[in-house]
């Protein structure tokens, strides 16, 4: 498989894994969910549609704003990220059972956070474009001169407050995601990058062998 093919496989599979992780945490929402998902869920509760639909709509608003202020068009990976994540979230929410007790929610939540981190590591490793929210974060980082983590924290605190005002589920899990997700990604991203590089090099060596 050629390099681009491997990259696209990582991109799509990573988005699927990420969406599955998000769906798991949403099903265990009594423990709390991530700030952006608090907003998406709050919008869903107030205005209907689906959580995935609001993820796409919010993403479109962010992409439009970022394109206007940067005077540049979005990457194809950014658009696909926005659409696929929303569609996959809705698909998995339809398929996953609703937990009936905290004893089921707790492991579901932990597994969801782990899958989210793994999915982010896999899709980011592909190098085919950041998601809309990451693009906004990078723009504001460049504009303000602040560190990435500070910009991310400011954005997510404000999004969390807005989502909470709309009735989105906030709990101990929201704090745990804020504290743990970055650490998990710190492990998953280099591992998946190394694995993708291994597959690409193996493919190139295989091509060279057959050409020889």
Spell out the key features of this protein:
212 residues; mainly alpha; 8 helices; 82% helix; 0% strand; globular
Describe the 3D structure:
With 212 residues, this protein is mostly helical. Helix content is 82%, strand content 0%. The protein is built from eight helices and no strands. Helix 1 (3-27) packs antiparallel against helix 5, helix 2 (35-47) runs parallel beside helix 7 and helix 6 crosses helix 7. It is globular, with a radius of gyration of 18 Å. It starts with a helix and ends with a helix.
Rounded mean pLDDT score: 84
Terminal CA distance reads 17 Å
Question: How large is the radius of gyration?
Answer: 18 Å
Write down the secondary-structure element order. Answer: HHHHHHHH
Query: Major beta sheet, specifics?
Result: none
Poorly predicted spans: none
Approximately how much helix is present in the residues? over 70%
> So what's the overall shape?
globular
What would you call the structural class? mainly alpha
Q: Strand-residue fraction?
A: under 5%
Number of strands: 0
**Count of alpha and pi helical runs:** 8
């Amino acid at each position: 498989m050629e390099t681009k093919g491997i990259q696209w496989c990582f991109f799509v599979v990573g988005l699927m894994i990420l969406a599955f992780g998000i769906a798991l945490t949403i099903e265990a929402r009594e423990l709390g969910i991530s700030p952006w998902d608090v907003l998406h869920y709050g919008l869903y509760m107030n205005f209907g549609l689906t959580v995935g639909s609001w993820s796409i709509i919010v993403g479109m608003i962010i992409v439009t704003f970022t394109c206007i202020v940067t005077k540049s068009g979005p990457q194809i990976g950014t658009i696909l990220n926005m659409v696929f994540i929303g569609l996959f979230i809705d698909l998995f929410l339809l398929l996953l059972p609703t937990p009936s007790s905290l004893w089921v929610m707790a492991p579901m939540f932990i597994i969801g956070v782990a899958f989210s981190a793994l999915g982010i590591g896999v899709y980011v490793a592909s190098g085919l474009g950041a998601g809309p929210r990451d693009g906004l974060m990078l723009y504001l980082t460049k504009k303000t001169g602040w560190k990435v983590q500070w910009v991310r924290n400011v954005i997510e605190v404000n999004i969390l407050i807005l989502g909470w005002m709309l009735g989105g589920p906030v709990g101990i899990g929201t704090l745990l995601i804020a504290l743990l997700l970055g650490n998990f990604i710190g492990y998953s991203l280099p591992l998946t990058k190394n694995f993708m590089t291994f597959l690409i090099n193996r493919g190139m060596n295989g091509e060279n062998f057959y050409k020889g």
